Each structure stands twice: as C-alpha cells, then as structure tokens.
Amino acid sequence: MANKASSRLEWRINVPGGTSKVLEPESGAVGKIWVGLKGCMGIIVWKVWRVLENAWHIGVADPRKVIHCIKVGLALSIVSLFYYMRPLYDDFGGNAMWAVMTVVVVFEYTVGATFYKCINRVIATFLAGALGVGIHLVAEQSGDQLKPIILGISVFLFASAATFSRFIPSVKARFDYGAMIFILTFSLVSVSGYRVVELFELAHMRLSTIAIGTSLCILVTMLFCPVWAGCELHHLIHQNMEKLADSFDGCVTEYFKENGSEEDLKKKMQGYKCVLNSKAAEESMANFARWEPTHGRFNFRHPWKQYLKIGASLRNCAYCIETLNSCISSEIQAPPCLRKHFSNKCMKASSYSINVLKELAITIMKMKKSSNIDIKVAEMNFAVEELVDALKSLPTTHFIATTGGEESTKAKAEGVEGSEHPSPIIKVLPLVKVVSLMVEIATRIGGVVNAVKELARLAEFKAAKDGKPKQNQPTDKLVSDH
Amino acid sequence: MANKASSRLEWRINVPGGTSKVLEPESGAVGKIWVGLKGCMGIIVWKVWRVLENAWHIGVADPRKVIHCIKVGLALSIVSLFYYMRPLYDDFGGNAMWAVMTVVVVFEYTVGATFYKCINRVIATFLAGALGVGIHLVAEQSGDQLKPIILGISVFLFASAATFSRFIPSVKARFDYGAMIFILTFSLVSVSGYRVVELFELAHMRLSTIAIGTSLCILVTMLFCPVWAGCELHHLIHQNMEKLADSFDGCVTEYFKENGSEEDLKKKMQGYKCVLNSKAAEESMANFARWEPTHGRFNFRHPWKQYLKIGASLRNCAYCIETLNSCISSEIQAPPCLRKHFSNKCMKASSYSINVLKELAITIMKMKKSSNIDIKVAEMNFAVEELVDALKSLPTTHFIATTGGEESTKAKAEGVEGSEHPSPIIKVLPLVKVVSLMVEIATRIGGVVNAVKELARLAEFKAAKDGKPKQNQPTDKLVSDH
Questions:
Q1: Which member of B68, B151, B423 has the closest CB to residue A392?
Q2: Per the record's keyword annotation, is Cytoplasm included, yes or no (chains A, B) (predicted)?
Q3: Which chain B residues have a beta carbon less than 8 Å from that of A69?
Q4: Which of A415, A463, B225, B463 could form a disulfide linkage to B469, CB 3.0–4.6 angstroms apart?
Q5: Is residue B158 a contact partner of residue B129, using CB atoms and an 8 Å limit?
Q6: What's the mean pLDDT when you consider all of chain A?
Q7: Is the pLDDT of residue B89 over 80?
Q8: Record: contact B104-A190, CB cut-off 8 A
Q9: Taking a C-beta distance cutoff of 8 angstroms, is the pair B237, B314 a contact?
C-alpha cells in the first residue's frame, strides 16, 4: 500500500520536470514516461485491434457490405476519370468537383436509398436553381441598392420554409434530403449570382455534373450485386416471422421439458427481441423500397406499406412472447405433475400455432398464396379451444387431487387456517398465466394471418401449385372467433 | 351503370384527340379536359392545404421548431454577408461557397447534433486534407505516368475503407458523418491536386471557410433558444415515465370502474404506445447529447447511457401494460361481483405502483435523490403481497360461493357434465390474468427503480431538501424480492 502511494507521489512530482525526488533509482523520469506511453499505445493498439476484429466479423457475416465498399471505391475512381481526362475536364471546368461530391453523398447501401437521394437531388437542384435564377432576375431589375436586400430576404424565407417542411412527417419520409439540397442550391445560386455573371451557365454546369454523378451511381448500384431495399424488407419480415416461431417454440419447450436447458434453446428463445427492435429498420426500408423500380418478383407499386402492418402484428405477438418468457424464467413455477398434465395440450396448441407462423413465413418467402393456411388456422384454433377446455376442467380435478376429497374441502370451507395443503390457485397460477398467454399469442397470430392475407390480396400472390386456395372458407371468422 | 360505362368509354376515346364520339353534346373535349384539370387542381389544392394545416399544427404544438427554421434562415443570411462584403470575398474568392454549404449541411435542430456534425466535419476535413496532400506529394515524385494511377488507387482504397468503417456500430454512432466528409475531402483533394497547383492554399481555404461556417452555426445554435439533445432526452424519459404511470392508472381504472368509459381515459390508456416506440429517438438523442458541453444542470460527462437503460426498463413495463391493455379490452371478463371483490386491493396495489413511478418521474425531473422512494417501493411491495395473498385465498371462497358447497363439488368430482354451475377457473381466469400482470408490472417497476437509482449514483444527484436519503434501507432486496 505504502509502495503504491509513494510511486504515485513520485509520478506526480516527476511530471513537472524535477528529478531530484526519484525514489527508485533504477528507473528515471524518461523511463516512467516511456512506460506511460507504452501503456497508452497498448490501449490504442488494443482498441484498434478490437475495431478491426469487429469489422472482420461484420464483413464475414454480410459480404455484401464489403462489396458495397468496393462499389463506392469503383464509382469514385470512375468519376475521377472525368477529371483526369482533359477534354471532359475542359468542358466542365472546376465544376467536375460536383460530380465527385454527388457520388460521395448519394451512393447508399441499398438501391432504393440511392434512388431516393438521386431523384431528390436532381429535382431539388432543378427547382431551386430555377427559382434562384428567377429571383435573381427580379432582383436585377430593382437596382444595386435593393438587390442584396431582396436576395437576403428570399434566402431567409425559402431556407426557413424548406427547413420547416422537414418537420412534416409525410415530407420528411419522402423529401427530407430534397429539402436540404433545395436550401443548399438556392443559397448558392442566390449568393453566387451576386458575383458570377454567367448564372445560367453555372446552373447548367451544376445540373449536368449532378446528372453525371447520379447516373453513374445508379448504374454502379444496380449493375454490381444490387442490394434492394424491398428485398431486404421482405427478408427481414420473413426472418422475423421465423424467429418469432422459433422463439415461441423455444419458450414452450423450455417450460415443459423435464431436463436441464441447453445453450441453443436459450439462444433460440431470444429471437423475439429482434422482432421488438426492428421497427425503425422496417420503416426506413419501406421508405426506400417505394423508390425502387421493378426488380425480381417485386413490381414498382408493390404494397410495401402492408409489410409495415405485418411487422406491427409480429411485434404485437412479440410483446406477448416477451411476457411469456418472463413467466418462464420466473422462480415460482407450477408443480411438475401439473405441468405434465398440461404438457401435451400446450405443446399441441403451440406447435399448431407455430405451424401457422411457419406457413405464413413460407407464404411470404415464396410469394404464393398458401393452399392450407385456413386448415392450419382451424387446427390452431381447435387446439387452443381444447387447451381452454382443459383449463376449465382444471380446478375440480386438481382440487380433488391435491386436497384428497371432501374433508379437506370442508376444512377449507370452514376457513381453517394452517392447513398443510396449499390453496390450489397459487399452485395453478403460473400455469394459468402461461396458458392464457399462449391463448393470447394464438389470437395475435390471427392478426398476423389477416395482415399476410391482405398482403397476398394487394400484391396479387398466385396460388401455390400443390393445392387450390380455399377462398370460400370462413377463415377470418375462425381467426377472430376465440 | 350503363351511363357510367359509356362516360368512361367517351373519356377514353376523347383523350387521344378524337371528338367524333362524344355522347353528351353539351360538353366537348375541351370541357372534359377542363373538368379533369379542375379535378386534378382540386386534389392538388386539397393536398397542399392538408400539408399546410399539418404544418400549422406542428408549429403550434412545438414553437421551437419554428424558431429553429428562423435560426437556419438567420445563419444563412449572415453567412451570405461574407459573400456580399467585398473585402472578405476577395480574401476567400470562390471558396466562400464552402461556408454557405457548411451552414446548410451542419445546422441541426439540437445543439448536440450540430456539435457532432461540426466536430466531425472539421476533424475529417483536416485529416483527409493532410492525407490527400501527403499522397499527392508522394505521387508527384513518381512521375507523370504513375501519378494518376497512384491517386486513383489511393482514392479507391481510402474511400472503400472509410465506407466500411460506417458499418461498424461504434464508429457509426460517433463518426458516421465524419467518415463521409473524409471520403469527400480526400477525393476532392486528390482529384483537384491533379490540376490545381496551389494545393496547400486550397486546403487552407477550405479549412478556414469551414471554420467560419461551423463557428457561425455553433454560435447561432447556442445563443438563440438552444435546443439541447440532453434536455430533450431527459424530458422524453420523464414524460415517458409519466405516460406509463397514467396509462397503467387508466387501464386499472377502466377495468374496475362500474360505469361506461370516457374518451379521456381511453386516450390516457394509449400512453404506453409512445414508450414502446421511442427507442430510436432515445438512442439518437443519447448519441448527440454526449457531444454537448456543460449546460444547465447537465455536465459534459453526464451519464447519458444510463438514460437508455431507464428507457429500456420503461419499455419492459410497457410490454406488460400492452398485454394488460389487451386483457382489459377482451370480451370475456370476470363477473362483476368478483371484480368488485378484488377492486380495492387491485386499486391499492396499482396506485402504490403508480406512486413509485410518479416519484421516480419527480426524481428525474428535479434531479434530486428522492427521500421516500424506498418507503414507496416498500408500500408497493406490501400492496402487491396483499394482492397475491387475496389471490391465494380466492379459489376456496369463490368455489364455495358459486357452487354452493359439497354437493356440487361431489358432482364435479364424479365428472358429471352439463352442470349448470360453470367451472370456477374460467370465471376467475380473466381476473387472475389481470392480477398476475399487475404483479409482473410491479416487479418491472422495480427494474426502473434500480435504473433510476443507478442514474442518481452516476450523476451524483443531491438529496432532496425535505428529507434525508435512507441509503441503509435494503430497497434493492425489497424490489427483487417478490
């Protein structure tokens, strides 16, 4: 302890420069600083190493991200060529810079995001350029004194209005970037109009360099391993559905199994958390997806908004599974005999529910109307009804089983305290909770079924080959029945 | 029907240009087009009107957004002055444009976001500029043939690497904008280095104009009605806590009240949805808050991350309240007599739980350690224990009450079907669900208590004046006990 304190003291005295009070003769001030530096370097190297390791894992997990980086490098190198080649350079002069800037700013991971930015940038530049030139002409007429005032006021007004428009949700979702570019271009045109005489030429330059940049971005992003926001959203919803099914399965298995839990099961059970947290990702992807042209199995007007509804209904299920999960991990549990009694019925109900979810996941993946979803929903509902019936008949049988018939009942009726048989409801309670949550989850899966059916209708999914869609069967009634 | 079909037909024929088949003599093709145009205009006017109405509501709801717009206009007008004033213009030449661009791109709603972008922009520009000039000097040495190749490869490599770094979560959270500006500046310096001889001067120009732009933004954003991301996060968490309390209160009141529901109550009950959806907002605010200097009651190193933990624990509660809400709105309910029996105990437990939440909300708002939170938590736990006890004693009393003693029990024990007394558990079930969810919510409120206590410890909240903090009381144990 004393040694520690003295070394700290020595350190404090050494730093200002004095070396007269060094207590350990074998290491001087330089040595100390060297050790300190080595420590710092070590920490930095370690941190950089961790970031690199992290980066490596990200690259291995999704090689498309690496490809995206190569695409950005490629697009920038190509656009630099415009600059290096003298004839092109002479055409555009110093404005070739705008093409480089456009590529850097506009190139995004998904095709949809790139389209969104490109279209916004081109339209906003055009509008703001036209408006800026118009106002400039008006200002020109009103003399040198008024000109800066008119320009200043117009910049103030339009910039404020465009900034405010970014707060309106519907504008923000579609034209946020456009509003920013509008302000930028309008200010630049107004401001430089004061100096640069060839305003039309400047506007023309800027538009054509931006056109070069955007078309290059669109070409590169679409030709080399395109990442479609729509596909991503589609896969995300599909994966979330599978994760939810797995997680529900994991919870029920965990609850009713007899031996100790495994690591795999624990991991599987956590899948619902992804569903809970994917709202922001879904929304941004749906926003970008609507800018994408027809690709693969998706049309230009694919009902992307319906995916958000499916996502919401999945999250609805996930809330319940979250509660179920906390029931399962709670320490107070129903006695094993009771659990065993319910095990079969619960496993049946849950497996039918999971079947429905898996069938929906297949419907989404294949984009074909499922021929037997109605049957599966009916099976699920039937199993849930059976489970509810079992719950209805529970208190009598259990009451008899644990308290051994009439005498005990009498004793309880007379309010005898301290009876050695605990009151049944508290034993049944955890099980009742689990079962009622399972029933609730099945109801909410009904909501998912309806959302997926609506998607199938809106996107005109074809019927699957291995059967006919049974449209006349009253499934919606069945789903909302319980 | 026939009329409709013919008018549709006429329309189709008219549009290509022919007027020979017009069925209604009083309106020619021009008239039709005029009607169509009027219709289109009407729709556009209506849409614009709705957007404006929307904008008006947004402005009224949060006047700071309007102030933000004025601030942006102001900053842009000021920066335009640099351009209009000849002496300054002559110093910076065409590069004054960079100052305008910086203001447009960097000025954000909150001070934190503006700082984040300013600092990222300045550092990234400096780093990329230095690196670009360095590589340019190396390329210069290797002859005219190799120079474009070296520059092209370096652009490719650095752009790819910087793009990839944006996929690493820790980098993305802090330096996403910086990485983009790094790519931008590096490409511009490399590319323009090929032509412009005065590379150092260009770099210097860009740095100084960016410095002017960023310092102007920081001044304007901090001096006129600053919106601090930290304060926003603080208020959001505080509001969410209140909303959660209100929504829990609303649910329980709605369930146990006897007369019809009111609109106010319904609205109050929906508060938990805000909590469920505020994750993204919390995260972005926490990200920005850490860039902010000391302001008001918040230090530079205020533990913003702990707010995220409080937010997560609040969402944890909200999941349960969501399930509770769906229990309440379900059609199958426990009989009124039963509900009345439990009403008092449930209301007591919920009001104590709500008290705890409200006390926590006050702790957060005042940033003072609460003197009686431990007592309130103990009260809540006691009320919950009472509720659980009531539930334990429920089946016996209720069983006797509904089935009238031994005979019925016997009949049930013998498996007689079709008895006119429904089995008790199905009657009790909805109530049991509600009560067990209330118990679960109380447990999760315990999680919120712990998170807020941790915040009070990290941020060194002072004790409230009206009492002493009772640190020795074993609250954590109490909280995790039930």
A1: B423
A2: no
A3: 159-161, 163-164
A4: B463
A5: no
A6: 78
A7: no
A8: no
A9: yes
Decide if B323 and A323 are in contact by the 8 Å CB cutoff: yes
Question: Could you report the per-residue pLDDT of B322-334, keeping only the tens digit for each?
Answer: 888 888 777 666 6
Q: Which of B233, B474, B253 is nearest to B354 (CA)?
A: B253
Q: Which residue out of A51, A67, A76 would a mutagenesis test of the B interface target, given it has the greatest number of B Cβ atoms within 10 Å?
A: A76
Residue B480, both tokens: 């995790």
Burial A185-196 (b: 16+ CB within 10 A, else e): bbbbbbbbbbee
- Cross-chain residue pair A191–B100, CB shorter than 8 Å: yes
What pLDDT shows up at residue B182? 93
- What is the reported pTM? 0.80
Q: Are A372 and A468 in contact (CB under 8 A)?
A: no
Q: What does the radius of gyration of chain B's CA atoms come to, in whole angstroms?
A: 34
Task: List C-alpha distances in Å: B402 to A280, B127, B397, B398.
Answer: 50, 80, 9, 6
Cβ-proximal residues to A245 (8 Å cutoff; 6+ apart), any chain: A354, A357, A358, A361
* Amino acid in position B280: A
- Sign of the C-alpha dihedral computed for residues B40, B41, B42 and B46 taken in this order: positive
Dist. CA A93–CA A212, nearest whole Å: 14
Tokens in use for B34?
């005029």
The predicted structure's pLDDT at residue B478: 38
Q: How far is B157 from chain A (nearest CA, A)?
A: 7
Phi, psi at B238, each rounded to 5°? -60, -45
Q: Is the pLDDT of residue B222 over 80?
A: yes
Q: What count of CB pairs under 8 Å joins A to B?
A: 241
SS3 of residue B313 by DSSP: helix
